[in-house]
C-alpha cells in the first residue's frame, strides 16, 4: 500500500513539474532556446515521423526578395501549440548562422538578439497554419534552410524540422541584384531586331532569341501577365506554346498555349505527360484576358495566367485533369520552353522547330532576361537525317550497282571480290547500320512506339512502315549470308527473294521519307525529294536502254554468249563492240544523288528557323 502511495505521489509531483515548465512559456519560447532550439519541457522530443511541413513559396530567391513561409500540419488532426523557427545557412546549419529576417502576423513575435533571426508564437492557442514572411539579405549568396521546433501538446514536440532548400537564383551573376543574367555558353541575348524589348531586365522578365520573344510581369496579385511573339510561316491555323518544366527535357510540363483560327486568337492550358501534349479537362482554366494578332508574319499573343490552381477537376478522355500536378505553381521557379506549329492549340500538330529552352530557371516574380538554349540535339532530326543518307544516297548507289553494273570492270577486284559486289555490299551494310541507329534513336526520343491521334491516316502509317522497313533491312543481309553457290539449283530462288526484299524495303523507305517530311511540314525538302524520285526513275530508264542496246548488239556477234559458265553472269561488256558509257553514267548518278542528299539534309535541319 505504501509503495502505491509513493508511486502516485511521484507521478503527481512529476506532472506538476512538467506542467509548470510548459506553462511558464505560453507567450513563446524564451531567449535561452535561441542556441539550442530545445524547449524545457522536461521530456525528450518525439521520435515518430514529423507530421508537419515547412514550405516556401519559391525554391530560389533574389537579393532583398520576400518569400512566403508556411508551417502547417499534414492533416487537420495536427495542431500547432507552439513553435520556434530560424532561417539558417545550409553550409552551417548546426550553428547559429541565420540569414535575412523573418516576420509573422500579430500572433507571432521575433525572438533572439539581432542580427539573429527567429520567430516564435505569441500565445499557446492551437493553430492549424502559421504564415510567415522571410526577407532575403542584400547579397543572395547562401543556400537557406528553415529549421523549426514544433510543439503539438505539452508532452509532444519535434526538433530540427527542416524545409527544402532555398537557393540564390543562379541566373543572377554572383547572386547580386536584379540584372540581366549572363547567357548560357553558346547562347546570346539579342540586343536588336523585332524580338528585342528595351524593357527586358528592367520592368519585364524576358525569354528570347532572334526568332521569338516571351515577356512576363507579375501584377502583384494572383496572376502573371505574359506576351508571346514569334515569326510563323502561315497566317492562320497555328499555335505557339510556353512550357514550364522542372528540367530541360519535354515531359511533365505545364503549358500555356495560344492559337489563331480564322483570324481569332485564343489561349488555353495543357500538359505534357511525356512526348505528347494533352489539353486540360478545362482547357481555359487559369487563362484570361487573351489578345493577339498575326501581322507581317509575326504571331503576337498576350494573356494572364493564374499562379496556382484553385480547384481540381476530373480527367476527360484524352485530356489531363486540372490539378497542381498539371497546372504548375508559378510562385516556383521553372525552366521555360517555347515551341510553335500548325493546328489549333487543343489539337496540335507536332512543332516545326526544336523547342527553345531557357538557359536557367525563370523566377517569374523577377525581371530577369533569359536567353534561349538552341544547342539541344533534336533526335527527330537526327533520325530523319540518317534515313536520308541511308536510303537516298547509299541505297540508291547500292541497288544500281547490283542491277546494272555486274558486267562492268570484269578484270578488276577490290580485296579479291568484283568491284560491283564490294560497292554494293559496302553500301548496303552501311544502310543496315544507319537504319538501325535511326530506329533506336527515334524509339528513345518517342519513349517507344508512338503516334498522335491528330495525325492523318497517311501520317499514322509512318511508325508502322518504319518497323516493316527495319525488319526487311535486317532480313536481306541475313539472307545474303546463306546464299547458295552460283551453280546451285536454289540460286534463282535466292536471287528473286533477295531482289524482292531489297526492292520492297527501298520503295517503302522512300514512301516513309515522304511521310516523315509531311510530318515535319517542310515543303522545300518535299520538293527536293520529288526531284530525287524523278532523277532515280530517269537513271534507271537510261541504264535499261543502255543494256537493251548492248543486248541487241551482242546478238549480232557470230559467237554470241551472254553468260559466263562459271558464274552465270552476263558477258563482260568490254568485249561488245559498243562504247561503254556506264562508268560515266555512274559518276553522274553519284554526283547528282550526293547533291540531292546534301540539299535535303541542309533544308531539313534549317527548317527549325523557318
From TrEMBL:
SMART domains: B561. Residues 19-183 form the Reelin domain. GO terms for cellular component: membrane. It is a multi-pass membrane protein. Residues 345-552 form the Cytochrome b561 domain. Residues 210-341 form the DOMON domain. The chain crosses the membrane at residues 12-29, 384-405, 426-444, 464-482, 494-517, 529-546, 584-604. It is found in: Membrane. Its main location: membrane. Its cofactor is heme b. It comes from the Eukaryota. The keyword Magnesium does not apply. Coiled coil: none annotated. Keywords: Electron transport, Glycoprotein, Iron, Membrane, Transmembrane, Transmembrane helix, Transport. This is Ferric-chelate reductase 1.
Amino acid at each position: 500500500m505504501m509503495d502505491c502511495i509513493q508511486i502516485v505521489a511521484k507521478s503527481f509531483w512529476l506532472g506538476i513539474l512538467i506542467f509548470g515548465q510548459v506553462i511558464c512559456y505560453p507567450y513563446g519560447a524564451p531567449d535561452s532556446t535561441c542556441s539550442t532550439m530545445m524547449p524545457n519541457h522536461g521530456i525528450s522530443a518525439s521520435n515518430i515521423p514529423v507530421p508537419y511541413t515547412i514550405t516556401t513559396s519559391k525554391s530560389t530567391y533574389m537579393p532583398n526578395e520576400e518569400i512566403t513561409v508556411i508551417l502547417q500540419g499534414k492533416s487537420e488532426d495536427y495542431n500547432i501549440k507552439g513553435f520556434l523557427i530560424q532561417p539558417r545557412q545550409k553550409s552551417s546549419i548546426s550553428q547559429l548562422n541565420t540569414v535575412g529576417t523573418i516576420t509573422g502576423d500579430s500572433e507571432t513575435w521575433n525572438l533572439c538578439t539581432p542580427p539573429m533571426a527567429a520567430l516564435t508564437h505569441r500565445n499557446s492557442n492551437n493553430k492549424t497554419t502559421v504564415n510567415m514572411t522571410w526577407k532575403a539579405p542584400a547579397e543572395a549568396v547562401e543556400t537557406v534552410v528553415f529549421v523549426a521546433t514544433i510543439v503539438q501538446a505539452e508532452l509532444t514536440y519535434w526538433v530540427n524540422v527542416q524545409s527544402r532548400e532555398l537557393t540564390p537564383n543562379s541566373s543572377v551573376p554572383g547572386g547580386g541584384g536584379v540584372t540581366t543574367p549572363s547567357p548560357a555558353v553558346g547562347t546570346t541575348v539579342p540586343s536588336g531586331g523585332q524580338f528585342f524589348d528595351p524593357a527586358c531586365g528592367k520592368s519585364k522578365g524576358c525569354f528570347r532569341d532572334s526568332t521569338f520573344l516571351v515577356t512576363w510581369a507579375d501584377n502583384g496579385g494572383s496572376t502573371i501577365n505574359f506576351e508571346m511573339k514569334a515569326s510563323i510561316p502561315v497566317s492562320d491555323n497555328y499555335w505557339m506554346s510556353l512550357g514550364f518544366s522542372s528540367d530541360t527535357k519535354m515531359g511533365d510540363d505545364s503549358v500555356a498555349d495560344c492559337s489563331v483560327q480564322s483570324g481569332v486568337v485564343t489561349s488555353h492550358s495543357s500538359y505534357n505527360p511525356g512526348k505528347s501534349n494533352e489539353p486540360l479537362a478545362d482547357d481555359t482554366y487559369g487563362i484570361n484576358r487573351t489578345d493577339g494578332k498575326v501581322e507581317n508574319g509575326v504571331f503576337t499573343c498576350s494573356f494572364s495566367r493564374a499562379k496556382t490552381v484553385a480547384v481540381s477537376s476530373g480527367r476527360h478522355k484524352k485530356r489531363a485533369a486540372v490539378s497542381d500536378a498539371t497546372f504548375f505553381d508559378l510562385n516556383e521557379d521553372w525552366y521555360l520552353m517555347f515551341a510553335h506549329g500548325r493546328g489549333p492549340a487543343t489539337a496540335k500538330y507536332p512543332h516545326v522547330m526544336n523547342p527553345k529552352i531557357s538557359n536557367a530557371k525563370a523566377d517569374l516574380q523577377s525581371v530577369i532576361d533569359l536567353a534561349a538554349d538552341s544547342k539541344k540535339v533534336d533526335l527527330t532530326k537526327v533520325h530523319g537525317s540518317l534515313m536520308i543518307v541511308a536510303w537516298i544516297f547509299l541505297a540508291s548507289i547500292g541497288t544500281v550497282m547490283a542491277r546494272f553494273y555486274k558486267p562492268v570492270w570484269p578484270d578488276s577486284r577490290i580485296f579479291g571480290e568484283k568491284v560491283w559486289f564490294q560497292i554494293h555490299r559496302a553500301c548496303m551494310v552501311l544502310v543496315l547500320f544507319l537504319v538501325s541507329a535511326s530506329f533506336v534513336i527515334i524509339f528513345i526520343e518517342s519513349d517507344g512506339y508512338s503516334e498522335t491521334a491528330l495525325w492523318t491516316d497517311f501520317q499514322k502509317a509512318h511508325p508502322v512502315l518504319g518497323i516493316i522497313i527495319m525488319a526487311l533491312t535486317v532480313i536481306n543481309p541475313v539472307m545474303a549470308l546463306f546464299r547458295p553457290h552460283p551453280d546451285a539449283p536454289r540460286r534463282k530462288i535466292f536471287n528473286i527473294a533477295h531482289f524482292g526484299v531489297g526492292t520492297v524495303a527501298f520503295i517503302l523507305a522512300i514512301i516513309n521519307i515522304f511521310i516523315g517530311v509531311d510530318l515535319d511540314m517542310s515543303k522545300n525538302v518535299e520538293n527536293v525529294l520529288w526531284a530525287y524520285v524523278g532523277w532515280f526513275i530517269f537513271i534507271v530508264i537510261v541504264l535499261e536502254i543502255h543494256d537493251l542496246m548492248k543486248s541487241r548488239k551482242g546478238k549480232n556477234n557470230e559467237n554470241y554468249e551472254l553468260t559466263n559458265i562459271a558464274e552465270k553472269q552476263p558477258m563482260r561488256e568490254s568485249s561488245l563492240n559498243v562504247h561503254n558509257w556506264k562508268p560515266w553514267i555512274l559518276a553522274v548518278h553519284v554526283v547528282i544523288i550526293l547533291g540531292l542528299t546534301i540539299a535535303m539534309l541542309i533544308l531539313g535541319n534549317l527548317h527549325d528557323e523557318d
